[in-house]
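Async update (no meeting this week)

Hi team, since we skipped the sync, here's where things stand on the single-chain job. The sequence we agreed to prioritize is pasted below, unchanged from the tracker. I ran it this morning and attached the output directly underneath so nobody has to dig for it. Comments welcome in thread, and please keep replies under the output.
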Amino acid sequence: MATVTGNRITLSPREMPARWYNVEADLPFRVPPMMSPSGFPITARELAPLFPRQIIEQELNAKSRTFSIPKEVREAYQQWRPTPMFRATALERELGTSAKLYYKFEGGSPSGSYESNTAIPQAYYTKQTGAEGIVTGGAGGVWISAIGHAASLFGLKSRIYSVRKPGSDLAWGDAYGRVWGVDVQASPSENTRVGKFQLKKEGTDSGSIATALAEAYEEATIDPDVKFTIPTLMGNTLIHQTIVGLEAQRQLAAIDEAPDHVIGSIGAGSHFGGLIAPFVPARIQGRNTRFVAVEESSTPSLTRGVYTEESADAAGLMPQVPMYTLGRDYSPPGVLAGAMRYHGVAPIVSSLFREKHIEAVAHGQIESYSAGLMFTRAEGIVLSPHAMYTVKEVIEQALRCKASGAEDTILFTVTPAVSTESSPYDTLLDGVMHDEQPEEASLKKSVGRFIGRG
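Output:
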């Protein structure tokens, strides 16, 4: 049974879920498949050179409701899972709200965030194939730490293409690469055709998560000794993240609660999808649970994007993914919450949004960091940038409840700041933060490619 101590709700290690949940099996509508360059749905045979068999099974299987979590993965998870849930009583008092605020703290993993939930199974399955290593793309230290730790657990080599720091030869998160022994390549790089083309066309400061993924994907297609891993977007990553939502469901049930609002920030949306997934069936069956995806206002994939098939990477090498997107050519500005600067949203999350089971809002940097500062001073956790966007919308909803007198239950997750070099609030407190607006010319050009399509 869950243990309730003050405002903390904990599960014992034996209460950690033993199976991931596949929400696609319970949806009353079909999530369109990824498409191959041939124009037909992608097949297991086409994915086999890049991904382990188990990852492909999770990706393409829309009928199995659950997938067993391997023993070795469960043992690795138990270093920090189940994660605690807290009632944000101090923030509730600060706001004077009638709402009940509950948050899962996802900061106990070796990466300091939720990325380890998917990095570990992807590395484990890669090891089972006999491959020597993994190659991936990203934008900072959290995914580097997650993949580096996961690779070390199973004796794999790891390389990550990470977005290049402006005006630098180093990538974001390079220091974390040294900690974990990850070969970090600043993207765009000279290692790949994609990187060389990007450097020649746009210069060293033109990197993006989509470009980094393109470089990693290209390397994986030509090196039989490595497998490709991806931090988010794909169905298997969302399935791995459901361990968060499943634990939250058990913790709330222990105090006889169910969420009226589940709120989370999104980049490509796998963590948000994993949080809401176990609560989706109840909504489909009639419960009026709101799922709110929070975007950075400069990268508004749901609120201003189009629903179409688009490649996950900047070069169009990867399969075409059915999703809400700003287009792979979109060049977002330098948002501090770097993981939110991705052009598209996971197919399952996109489908739920299209079917009106998810709402989306966009917030700017200043208002989100200000909300995060309020949370930090009330609850005592210095937040990661993307968690501040979640908290901004949580506070907005809590104030709406205050105005109406509603005693709604709000569920969300937070992760802490992982860099010790400076406070994530420094630019806010120094008065030099500014709100990044969408790059309208880039957005118009990128989305314009889809006009008249299907």
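Quick observations from my side:
The chain has two domains: 85-112+235-447, 116-228.
The first strand starts at residue 3 and ends at 5.
Reply here if anything looks off.
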